[in-house]
Amino acid sequence: MPPPASARLRPFAVGLTALGLGALAYLSLRPSAFLSEVGWIPRWLSHWADHHGVLRNAVAFLALGLFVFASVGRRPRHGLALAAFAIVIEVPQIWLPQRVFDGRDIGASFGGLAVAWLLVWVARKLGRLRGA
Hints:
There is one protein chain. By secondary structure, the chain is an all-alpha fold. It has one domain (about 5-25, about 45-130). It has helices spanning about 5-30, 45-50, 55-70, 75-90, 105-130. It is globular. The mean pLDDT is about 90.
């Protein structure tokens, strides 16, 4: 019997997670914080992000958390790994001349992860109640 669909899609989910982590690391560690200078980000999104400094961290980690917790799993180690990643990509900004380390960015990232954790938990509870 073939493995369930979730098992077959797991390598794809892990690959997309790695891509998302790489993109966040790149955007956090590049010399300029302005996303409007990044050609592959849609203009409307870069404009919004450039005008919502700390909030953009919450939104980015909310999206990343939703994907990871829904596809790879909502285990404590996944949440802790993403929280550690938020710290790891913020701290090097201390040494980047045009960037600024800001603890609020880490807090916003943690907040986005917490909301993602809660939303996936609620979605799974509702899915079970409806017979999914």
